[in-house]
Amino acid sequence: DEGSMHLCDAVWMSEAAKPEAERRWKAVLEALEKLANVARQWDQPILQGCAIRGCIVVYAEYLRDLGAAIGVGEAEIARLDSRPIARFPVRECIGRQFIYAGNRTEAVRWLTAAIADAGDQWARERIRTCVRIAGQITDPAAALKWVEDAAAIAESDREIPDLMLARVKGELAL
């Protein structure tokens, strides 16, 4: 899961590291879309979802086109209808874009759907997503529940670094 995400992130992050005048986002989008298509042909839905997540980042964060980002994401979610684990990176990324846009309601809706899609996979990302949801909710009791969920995930997965667990527990203390 994380390997697919890192591979796809590397595509757009290498472009983002360039001076703005040298960035070629169209080529990055083409590469990510090609990767998604190859992943679809090879029946690698997680890689497919991660490639589309990269497209969402490019559209929303670099091209400043949240509508296009959502459109790409929604189209991919329809393709991944029977693969909820592969929908997680798409929904999580759209939810995060709504946080950046200041739309708490949509952010919570998308992030909550992402958590439902993840099942027991994506532990690190689920922790981050639960904490993000908590940060968007104005009801303290409901927010606390999401941080408690993040802590439970962190405590139950032996691969979660101690520092991440400590950060979640710190959120609980606040």
Describe this structure in words.
There is one protein chain. With 174 residues, the chain is an all-alpha fold. Helices cover 80% and strands 0% of the residues. The two termini are 31 Å apart.
List keywords for this structure.
single chain, mainly alpha, 80% helix, globular
Q: DSSP strand (E) fraction? A: under 5%
String of helices and strands: HHHHHHHHH
Total E-strand runs: 0
What structural category do the secondary elements indicate? Answer: mainly alpha
Name the shape in a single word: globular
Number of helices: 9
- Gap between N and C termini, in Å? 31 Å
Write down the overall mean pLDDT: 95
Radius of gyration: 16 Å
Helix content: over 70%
| Biggest sheet architecture | none
Uncertain segments: none
